[in-house]
Design brief:
The chain contains five helices and nine strands, in the order αββαβββαβαβββα. By secondary structure, the chain is α/β, with parallel strands linked by helices. A five-stranded mixed sheet has the order 3-6-7-8-9, with helices on both faces. It has a two-stranded parallel ribbon with strand order 1-2. Strands 4-5 form a two-stranded antiparallel ribbon.
Length: 177
């Protein structure tokens, strides 16, 4: 949310694809329910012509395989999960030249390993930048510590708004190049 607000404050036309219902005046919002809905909405929206995708949503890695029959409530039931499509990979197939900022969330790993995994993600999906963090240290809090990774690694700490400002400063650099 803070990224959308900061981009809007800087004069960008912003479309926010998410699950919540916020109602931010001046920002186009598209509401989705599932990982597939979000992927479909983003791909369709990008077809209208965008310069940049910031893929910050924590989209589920798995989806539930739907049951053909009614699930009985009087006995134990096992859910079957299948991998959800990766939004960035799907977008990259259709929009190979689009500038994309990705996010890499991990838990309980070293700073060195976090940065290594973020760089691998950046390279494999041809991202312009990755924002990496250990979510076990900042999920659900107002303060966080992240790393902005492009050609360099820049640690950023502070409120979500402060981090959004730093990210958008880097985005402006990327868009100029």
């Amino acid at each position: 949310m803070e990224l959308a607000l900061e981009a809007f404050r800087r004069g960008a036309d912003v479309t926010l694809v998410h699950r919540g219902c916020v109602g931010i005046q001046g920002i186009c919002e598209l509401y989705t329910e599932s990982a597939q809905d979000m992927t479909d909405a983003v791909i369709e929206e990008l077809g209208k012509g965008y310069d940049l995708l910031i893929s910050a949503a924590a989209i589920s890695d798995f989806t539930v395989t739907p049951s053909k029959d009614k699930i009985k409530s009087d006995k134990e039931f096992t859910l079957a999960l299948k991998p959800a499509p990766k939004l960035i990979k799907e977008v990259r197939k259709i929009y190979p030249g689009l500038k994309i900022i990705g996010f890499k969330a991990e838990t309980g790993i070293s700073e060195e390993e976090l940065i290594k995994r973020a760089r691998k993600s950046m390279d494999s999906s041809h991202l312009s930048m990755v924002v990496a963090n250990d979510v076990s240290r900042g999920m659900g809090t107002e303060e966080n510590n992240v790393y902005l990774i492009d050609g360099s690694v820049k640690p950023v700490s502070g409120t979500k708004r402060r981090i959004a400002i730093e990210i958008m400063d880097k985005v402006e650099e990327i868009m100029r190049n």
